[in-house]
Design brief:
There is one protein chain. The chain is mostly helical. 76% of the residues lie in helices and 0% in strands. It is built from 5 helices and no strands. It has helices at 6-19, 25-37, 40-53, 58-70, 74-84. Helix 1 packs antiparallel against helix 2, helix 2 packs antiparallel against helix 3 (40-53) and helix 3 (40-53) runs antiparallel to helix 4 (58-70). The longest helix is centred in the first third of the chain and has 14 residues, at 6-19.
Length: 85
């Protein structure tokens, strides 16, 4: 991902998702790649998908709070922080 090989990263994440369908890791990684690509709506959906699999998954919550803060939406960031507690 750091080399800008987003397509290859997403393909690798799809393989992880097929092997571990009940693990939030693949959704969280997909959200990171989409966020770097600038697809914020897709990233948010991926992070929220990780939280549907495991509601207390901190990595996805952290990413959603960071996105809300960077969008200068403190109310949304409070919502995500409170949901994780």
């Amino acid at each position: 991902m750091h080399r800008g090989e987003h397509v290859q990263a997403l393909e690798a994440i799809d393989r992880i998702d097929r092997k571990l369908p009940n693990d939030p890791l693949a959704s969280e990684l997909r959200g990171r790649v989409l966020r770097v690509k600038g697809d914020l709506a897709g990233a948010r959906a991926a992070f929220e998908g990780a939280l549907k699999i495991q509601p207390a998954y901190f990595a996805a919550t952290r990413q959603l709070v960071a996105m809300a803060l960077s969008a200068k939406d403190p109310e949304l960031s409070r919502l995500y922080r409170n949901a994780a507690v």
